[in-house]
Amino acid sequence: GERDEARTNFERALEVAQFFIERYPESELAATDIAANLYSLGMLSFDAHDFETALDQFEAGLTYVQTAAKNNPSPELSRLTIEGNLGLARANIQIFRFKPAIEQYGAAVAALRESSRRDPGDIDLQWQFVRVNDEAADLLGLVHWPGGINAAKLCYDNSLEVCMTMMMAAGNRSEAAYQEIRRCYEQRAVIAEIQGDFSLAQTYSDQA
């Protein structure tokens, strides 16, 4: 089928990429090429529910990216670092390995936050940060992990800050940002209730 054909194409491209990375181990282009193919194979494995293989593929790709970034960090390598950490986090969640997933989400969120602050005019980047941040926060709110609730609250606070900024930049005309702000307040209310602060929970509910 189409998936098998795609896998074959990525595996062939990976062979070529491996040839070049062996000849030019310091090349950013070679690192990004091999990582992109490994990530694509990782996504195919993920979609096939072969999560262990997906983990191996994302980890291998991320290793090439991180090695290249040590010598010459760049926006493209930063993007691929984020993508690799997200791939690992999502695959780990599927096999209930929450501790590494939380660490990988944390790395992706931190890198995206830094990128979004460097380029506040890039709305797509701001939304990518918000969505990944919320994805991490939702996990933190569900997992019984020490400090998880407070970390989730911090994530929602960050999303709220970014969406408020986007709302002001858009002259309060962004319906998507408005809905996200409401969601953040709703989640804040849930967290305050879990922590036993019912007055604060009510305040957040009213703001939503």
C-alpha geometry? elongated
Structural class: mainly alpha
Strand content is: under 5%
What is the radius of gyration computed over CA atoms, rounded to a whole number of angstroms?
A: 19 Å
First and last CA, distance: 47 Å
Count of individual helical segments: 9
The assembly state of the depicted protein chains is single chain
Number of strands: 0
**Could you describe the largest sheet, including whether it forms a barrel?**
none
**Helix-residue proportion:** over 70%
Order of helices and strands: HHHHHHHHH
Average pLDDT: 88
In terms of per-residue confidence, which ranges show pLDDT below 50 for 5 or more consecutive residues? none
Textual characterization of the structure:
This protein is mainly α and 208 residues long. Helices cover 85% and strands 0% of the residues. The protein has nine helices and no strands. It has helices at residues 2-23, 28-47, 51-71, 75-94, 98-118, 123-142, 148-169, 175-194, 198-207.
